Amino acid sequence: MEISVRRDVFRLARVFTISRGSRSEARVLTVRLRDGGHEGWGECVPYARYGETLESVEAAISGLPGGITREELQEALPPGAARNAVDCALWDLEAKRAGRRVWELAGLPEPGPVITAFTLSLDTPEAMREQAARNAHRPLLKIKLGTADDMPRLEAVRAGAPDSAIIVDANEGWSAEIYADLAPHLARLGVRMVEQPLPAGADDALRGLERPVPVCADESCHDRASLAGLSGKYDLVNIKLDKTGGLTEAIALRRAAEAAGFGIMVGCMVGSSLAMAPATLIAQGAAYTDLDGPLLLAEDREEPLRYDDAGVHPPAARLWG
After folding, report:
1. Residues with catalytic annotation?
2. What's this model's pTM, rounded to 2 decimal places?
């Protein structure tokens, strides 16, 4: 089996901003596994927040032996982007060899479309109100916040999209004091859930704070090893394949999280339809799905995922799985 990795760039439809910075393009790594007449592929998005770069992740992938199995991969690489791309490519390759779909091989239910959040970039209150108004037809909006001046932004989005459900992602940008001040207003404005209000290293403060709306762990939850430290602080966990290190661990994490009483959110980095495709299998029946990466792009893969009023549809076999 031959492993190859390539850098790909996808232009965004508009500049995308979170509390950590802005970007105008998605830089991803595409992994291809070739075995005779079969080829599997996967995508990952290296993330600086977790100490990853395109160069470091590419090197980790390139150092793998050609005949590695999914089981061996779990030990060869830690959770993260590198393992994700290879793991998903191995699933795709296995499905093509068998002439079956990945969900069948994994013992998962046949997937259908799921409603996904659409993310509004962090901006001025006026600009965020305009974003919200343009997308007020969408059933679920996700707001990027994470500053000390977020209340006007939240009010503006609610005014722009009065009927949409809203979830908030603070990207670790609040202190315990800011969160405690904002929390009652989140409930007043009908916010359904807030992601990672406090930094992952300082989230023990959540144990002593009221949570009038459910709180979801994102940066604090990577794989099953994270779960033990989340009880009493979070109500849900956000499963992202670039954090878990692929579909294999994502399946195991979802089962373990549900057994521990956590609700499930399935999220993504900003990537193409290839990156979202495996996550649609995990998103089935999740409380919240945030697989809108392709909706933020100006260009995508040749066989993109389909989005319509029913949500994001599972991938055609020509794309993945």
Report:
1. 144, 240
2. 0.95
